[in-house]
Amino acid sequence: MADTVIIHDLPPKEAGRLLSALPADSFVFNALPAVNHCMGCFDCWTKTPGLCVIRDRHQELAHALAGCGALIILSRCVYGGLSPAVKVAMDRSIGYMLPYFYLDRKRDELHHQPRYKERMVLRWHLYGEATREERRTAEALAAANGVNLLAKECRVSFYPAAGDIPPLGGAV
């Protein structure tokens, strides 16, 4: 199982520079070209627990997420969110959680129950121009994703361009 999972939409040159020094147990998922969209069939909850039934390369990502210690997102910032390709990859990962809900009494919110015991660290590294409002939106979205994934920690960093993201040798 991968300790660090990275989902990215980086141009090839930047991907090579940023990802070359990662530990051997890292799992890197290039969101480009984009995988198929989630069909909303819920089979990842009922028929093939934790695994999307759409047979494409995303199934490898579902396996890697199970029990990873860190999930790192490297994405172009689009209107305060993830790029479309990275968003599709994240949407397809809903089987990471169980279909059952619990009430988070601190936040007075309903959330999916965890499928796995391990808790990950979540890091978003967003690149490209972003207004102050888009940055606030991205931070709120990342925090909400962290809550939904039951991440033990969540942090967002912004960079003017993909080339400004520092190498991920230490991963987190």
Helix and strand sequence: EHEHHEHEEEHE
Q: Tell me which CATH architecture applies here.
A: 3-Layer(aba) Sandwich
The tally of structural domains comes to: 1
- Compute the number of helices: 5
Instruction: Report the top-level CATH class.
Output: Alpha Beta
Tell me the quaternary state: single chain
Question: What fraction strand?
Answer: 25-35%
Shape: globular
Radius of gyration: 16 Å
| Number of E strands | 7
Q: What would you call the structural class?
A: alpha/beta
Ranges where pLDDT stays below 50 over 5 or more residues in a row are none
Average pLDDT metric = 91
Helix content: 25-40%
What does this structure look like?
The protein has 172 residues and is α/β, with parallel strands linked by helices. It has a single domain (4-164), classed as Rossmann fold (3-Layer(aba) Sandwich), CATH 3.40.50. Helices cover 26% and strands 26% of the residues. It is built from 5 helices and 7 strands. The protein has helices spanning 12-19, 43-46, 58-65, 84-91, 132-148, and strands spanning 4-8, 26-30, 70-76, 97-104, 109-114, 121-127, 153-159. It has a 5-stranded parallel beta sheet, with helices on one face. The longest helix has 17 residues, at 132-148.
Give a quick summary of the entry.
The chain has 172 residues and is α/β, with parallel strands linked by helices.
